[in-house]
DNA sequence: ATATTTTTTTAGATTTGTCTAAATTTATTT
DNA sequence: AAATAAATTTAGACAAATCTAAAAAAATAT
């Protein structure tokens, strides 16, 4: 079955919001997709007709199994293309998102499976997010917030949950990226700010609000 | 400026028909795009409004300079993606067309220039068609002797330099004519004879003295 | 528990690209 | 040169995805 780019975008957005907040609302979805609530309602009805969504008006909605399957294939495509753009075409991981938004709608499954093979079956995309396998299975791995790791323990940045331009700009300035190895040296109780040490660099400080969006594996 | 996939398809189709036949007709274009003449007329008006096409009703049409420029960028994208699919993802050159039809509408110019670089600035796509450079310049097809083309590369017979009755009789027997598409499968060092494969036919052998008079474009 | 606010949905319009059927223009025949 | 045929265009309709404005339902506050 093939779906329009627009439908695919809805499915992906619902999938992400569902993961994050458990429940998805019409307004939240409209906000995520930069559109109007009325447009969302229109599309929800279409997705229901195609059995991609379980939806009763005013009663909320969530993806059907089929809808989840389609969403995972799009997530897979998005993340593999991002990996390709960074690893092979040498883009920075902060500039690939928009290109991947387009590439994720290329339909051929054979193409994406070949791309996966060409890239060496990567487990995570350049932002640290896991890449679903060919059958759509998503490996869960535990990302821990910087706030929750013990002092003086080497940790590797695996994921940035807030990927706003502003956040990325700040992290770039502090030399923090996916894969950066660091240790938390001090925690200040007053404002929950952290002092970090990155190998071969001088100590830096980040606020609680930044730290809670930086996830690591230890 | 960004154009819809549909507009891009029209521009590309007009470009190709223009190359081939000099003049393009509404019917020919409808046939090429598998659509109806009425739909073509509708689109021609839109393309004119956007100054991509010079068009006066009932008087025929052709691409403006701007339209040609856009068409060449799409051709560039199509051929680079085909090259990528064959060289990097190991698809056969006969199975990549539909995928490239989708990929050619990915908008980022930076992406396609990086891809070009990644691929080593190839001059021709897997079908032998020339790839426009970053500025949209299209290298003129050169006529090369069959003796000088690489193995397993699709070539189209463009010229026969010796047009004696004897030569033409021989070529007729071998089913070789202007426009015939073939590949050189083997070169025998002993007598420089060649083994050729024409689509849908069994392999044939020709001598060096015949081959040097058959020119092709790749 | 009623009033108010917020969220969601409906009704009707708009844009893009397509279609069919009919009209018009151009080309071809006799 | 008039008649016929072919090519092209117009008129009016439709589907997909979106929008605005208004109505309906649910949530919240007094």
What this model shows, in words?
The structure is a homodimer of 218-residue chains. Chain A is of the alpha+beta class and 218 residues long. Among the domains of chain A are: 5-63, Arc Repressor Mutant, subunit A, CATH 1.10.10; 144-217, SH3 type barrels. Helix content of chain A is 41%, strand content 16%. Chain A is built from eight helices and eight strands. Chain A has helices at 5-21, 26-32, 37-49, 65-87, 97-103, 109-118, 165-173, 208-211; strands at residues 53-55, 61-63, 144-145, 155-160, 181-188, 193-198, 204-206, 214-217. A six-stranded antiparallel β-sheet of chain A has the order 3-8-4-5-6-7. In chain A, strand 6 (193-198) and strand 7 form a beta hairpin. The radius of gyration of chain A is 19 Å and the shape is globular. Chain B binds a DNA duplex (30 and 30 nucleotides) through residues 4, 6, 25-27, 35-43, 45-46, 57-58.
